[in-house]
Amino acid sequence: MNPRTATGKTRAATTNRDSHMANKADATRETTTTGETSATGETSATVEGAAMSNSNLPLIIGHRGASAVAPENTLAAFERALRDGADGIEFDVRLARDGVPVVIHDATLRRTAGIDVPIASLSSSDLASIDVGSWFNRRHPARAADAYARETVPTLARVFESIAPRCRVLYVELKCDAGEINRLVERVVAEIRAHKLERRVVIESFTLAILEAKRIAPDVRTSAALQRRPTRPLLLARTLFKHARDYRADELALSRSLVSRRTVEAARARGLQTVVWTVDHPSWYGRAHALGLHAIMTNDPARMCAARDAFRQP
């Protein structure tokens, strides 16, 4: 799921998290083919020529909405993802100054609003008045839309109210420092319950936040997000499963380089569904189907949905 951090105290507090964000953002820009090396050292199986049925097709999840064609984590991106055929959306949540969960990836507004100010220093009403869409028009002029300049940081409640009724599933990725975990989880779970979305929301995190979520809301599904790191380039399958067990996760959300048939089958044997992030090349839909993945997170749902349509043909 790559900003630069704010100066001073904020920079010190967010250095490690920004390293992760950069890694994840790099993964979203790939256009990959089959034959990558997996977490277990196994080469992922090609699906060329494989016989496919139309049953149990992987879900298509818009990563930060349709973030390839609209400004990420905005209502416009979420609307576009659903219009393009996505089954659901994935987005990031952190707390504003007033304790309200808001939907934004970075710890500051530097990348998406050009303001080097921490999210935690602004109230949800402040954030509701700040343009976080114009940057997309400047960076992607061929995909620009005047309406994007009116996009602001939505609250989690607003997303649940306006988008959730049309989603099969919503992946809520928690973003916070260690000291904020309890408060963020409590606020997010309260919104899930208030909107009666216990059966359709999956709480996702790279941190112990999902363990806290499982403690206070055992009926809400959780997903342990995992990726390779420079300090741990070789992650063994048993490490992935220990991580999921320790965090009491229901799903594994794996970066593309960690996905293999052996890992997916071993996860299934342990009662874990597997999700891959973030992939945009349509060849991934065939791979995901062949491997039995539960869902695909993509920046470009329209492109992935076109690949899915091929599997629905009689």
In short:
The protein is α/β, with parallel strands linked by helices and 314 residues long.
State the secondary-structure class: alpha/beta
The rough form would be described as: globular
The CATH architecture name of the domain at 14-70 and 82-93 and 170-312 reads Alpha-Beta Barrel
Given as residue ranges, the uncertain stretches (5+ residues, pLDDT < 50) are 2-54
The H/E string reads HEHEEEHEHHHEHEHEHEHEHEH
> N-to-C terminal Cα separation, in Å?
35 Å
Strand content: 15-25%
Mean pLDDT: 85
Annotation field: number of helices? 12
Helix proportion:
25-40%
| The named CATH superfamily of the domain at 14-70 and 82-93 and 170-312 | Phosphatidylinositol (PI) phosphodiesterase
Strand order of the largest sheet: 1-2-6-7-8-9-10-11
- CATH fold group of the domain at 14-70 and 82-93 and 170-312: TIM Barrel
CATH class of the domain at 14-70 and 82-93 and 170-312: Alpha Beta
Q: Largest sheet, described in full?
A: 8 strands, parallel, barrel
